[in-house]
Amino acid sequence: MGKKELSEKISKLAGEKNAAILAHNYQRPEIQQIADYLGDSLGLARQSSKLDTELIVFAGVDFMAETAALLNPGKKVVIPDLEAQCPMASQLPAKTVQKAKKEHPDAAVVLYVNTLAEARAEANVTCTSANSVQVVNALAEDVILFGPDSNLAWHVKQNTDKEIIPIPKNGHCYVHKMFSATDIELLIEDFPKAEVLVHPESDPEVQKLADYICSTSQMLRRAQESPADEFIIATEIGLVHRLNRELPNRKFIPALSDGICQQMKLHTLDKIYRALINEEPVVEVPSDIADRARAATERMFEVSKG
Questions:
Q1: 127 marked as binding residue
Q2: Any idea which positions bind [4Fe-4S] cluster (predicted)?
Q3: Average of per-residue pLDDT across 150-172
Q4: Alpha helices of the chain — where are they, by DSSP H?
Q5: Quick check: 70 pLDDT over 80?
Q6: Any known ligand binding at 11?
Q7: What phi and psi, each to the nearest 5 degrees, are found at residue 172?
Q8: For the chain, which domains are there?
Q9: 24 is in an annotated binding site
Q10: Is CB count within 10 Å lower at the N or C end of the chain?
Q11: What does the pLDDT average to over 138-149?
Q12: Is the pLDDT of residue 237 over 60?
């Protein structure tokens, strides 16, 4: 079955089942195009909390599907491939957060949503790459335990007077660690008029070369609003596919053409179709963990309105 025919079948079946397909910006182009909602972690979290559908098919990695599940306790959330597990999220188990809280009892715990629900249940509030600075600066505490991405923690530290303690010390996204300052500098030489848009999961040396440090949704917004015609994009290649599709009159240069999240790319149209038919694999979060992680997520919404 070709991609076009399969896409049509998916759309028809989703309508019949009152299902919504949510997809992250790093998904394959053909999945981006059949999604009811396409966005970054914050946008998808917000959207999942507003849905009135009975079934949610989440084309993203595990922690994202968990967010949808804990925000929608009365709905069924399925993920097309259970192996779509974020390596960074696994770097911060709940026991590591618990240990850090004992060592710093007066600190607030701010966890990136790129973290499994069991760890987020230990947080005061969660954040995304789009709102991390806003969330941290909205807290009363002067000391912040922040995890799991140490590069995002560095970015926050540049924009706050608070003490930021990364947990773990070297948490990272393997895709954004691929970008190097040398590669970006060479691209700047080749495209001197291009704006440099860098994701804050990138190393500090790369962030320092940015014209704008952005989440994926902020990169899209900047490209829409900027007077520039060329952009160097330092994030996973999936966003470049979206930018090229939605803004065909602009030029988007990937910082690394093989900057690919293998876990995101595990989802396929065929797997989405089967997930819709079988309504599985179901994403389930234990109720005690879900309640606490939900509270941390809802607090994020409260302090990052807009």
A1: no
A2: 86, 173, 261
A3: 97
A4: 3-16, 29-34, 41-48, 62-71, 94-103, 117-120, 132-137, 150-157, 181-190, 204-207, 216-225, 237-246, 269-278, 287-303
A5: yes
A6: no
A7: -160, 160
A8: 3-86+264-284 (3.40.50.10800), 89-172+288-303 (3.40.50.10800), 176-254 (3.40.50.10800)
A9: yes
A10: C
A11: 97
A12: yes
Whether 173 has a binding-site annotation, put simply, is yes
129 annotated to a ligand binding site:
yes
Q: 18: left (phi > 0), else alpha (psi -120 to 50), else beta?
A: left
199 appears as a binding residue in the annotation: yes
Distant-in-sequence, close-in-space partners of 243: CB < 8 Å, separation ≥ 6: 219, 220, 223, 231, 233, 250, 252
The pLDDT, as a whole number, for residue 306 is: 47
Pairing of strands 108-112, 125-127: parallel
Has 174 been labeled as part of a binding site?
no
Does residue 72 carry a pLDDT above 80? yes
Residue 303: pLDDT band with limits 50, 70, 90: confident
The pLDDT value recorded for residue 305 is 66
Q: Quick check: 159 and 152 in contact, CB under 8 A?
A: no
